[in-house]
Write a structure and sequence with these properties.
By secondary structure, this protein is of the alpha/beta class. The chain contains twelve helices and twelve strands.
Length: 306
């Protein structure tokens, strides 16, 4: 008799393209995966997978089975979402996070996950968006909170929140209250996101002009380092204002008035389309609610400052 575990195994082998990948996803060994597929082929009496190449691909019969397998997995996820006890959800969700999220609402999300899904563990990696995108595509993480949305056809995304970017400096730099031009700001080092990121390129394009002195652009993968450098008066930081609420409130940093405009940074939750994304989508739903609530709270005092 064909069992559900064999169907699920087959679906993951096809989705990930390998027995090894399916074994990692299902927390079992490659030989166990091979045994399940062999048993499924015996019970159905047809060959389901081509094993002639490094990537496991479905045969014509395997493609037919895929249609029914996807329906079964989808129906199971729907059943669990509607009928099952979500607090009983178990396992490990590998989550990649852009650092801006770490400094804003990630702690609230972790608390919410712990409350709503106490048996679901999070493994969290912090990195820049290009790296997280690569890790998502390589199946090394299952959910990513990144600048986006990511554009790959295999990726599903939902917008989480927008954060405005400001020019921030220590009062020690004496930049005053009046509007500052790009020439005024170009006299100082500019401190911002690491290279190979969208915000870095936006900032570089603002100051990389022939009528301005050569840009002194300090890039750091650590936003905490950027904030510390700005507080020490080492330059003007160009970062989301949301991460420096405390520093603005106690006067260690000031939000500068300038005619330069940088588009808000849009953060999205992204994950690969796959047979079973129930846990991923539940966490993404929680993240969207928390992110939007957090952004609304942060925006109010910032509007008041202007």
């Amino acid at each position: 008799m064909v069992d559900f575990k064999s169907i699920e195994t087959f679906l993951w082998v096809v989705t990930l393209g390998s027995f090894r990948g399916a074994g990692q996803r299902l927390n079992t060994t490659q030989p166990a995966i091979s045994q399940r597929i062999a048993q499924l082929e015996r019970e159905l009496g047809v060959k389901l997978l081509n094993r002639d190449h490094r990537v496991a691909s479905p045969t014509p019969s395997g493609r037919q089975l895929m249609v029914y397998a996807e329906k079964l997995i989808s129906l199971r996820s729907e059943m669990m979402a509607e009928v099952g006890d979500r607090s009983a959800m178990r396992g490990v969700l590998r989550l990649g996070v852009a650092e801006t999220i770490v400094h804003t609402w990630l702690p609230r999300l972790i608390k919410s996950v712990n409350t709503a899904h106490p048996n679901l563990s999070l493994e969290i990696e912090v990195d820049i968006t290009p790296s997280l995108n690569a890790r998502l595509q390589a199946q090394e993480i299952e959910l990513a909170f990144v600048l986006g949305p990511l554009s790959a056809s295999s990726v599903r995304s939902r917008v989480l929140c927008d954060y405005s970017v400001g020019f921030l400096a220590s009062p020690a730099l004496g930049l005053g209250n009046g509007p500052l031009t790009v020439r005024d700001l170009a006299k100082f080092p500019i401190i911002t996101f690491p290279s190979k990121t969208q915000p870095y390129e936006l900032v570089r394009s603002l100051f990389n002009r022939p009528d301005l002195p050569p840009i002194r652009l300090h890039a750091s993968a650590s936003l905490a380092t950027v904030v510390h450098m700005a507080i020490e008066g080492l330059g003007v930081a160009v970062i989301p204002t949301a991460i420096v609420e405390n520093e603005l409130a106690d006067g260690r940093l000031r939000l500068l008035s300038t005619d330069l405009k940088i588009p808000p940074l849009t953060f999205s939750a992204s994950w690969l389309a796959s047979p079973d994304t129930l846990a991923v989508e539940l966490v993404a739903d929680l993240a969207a609610k928390i992110a939007q609530d957090s952004a609304a709270v942060i925006d109010a005092p910032l509007r008041a400052r202007h």
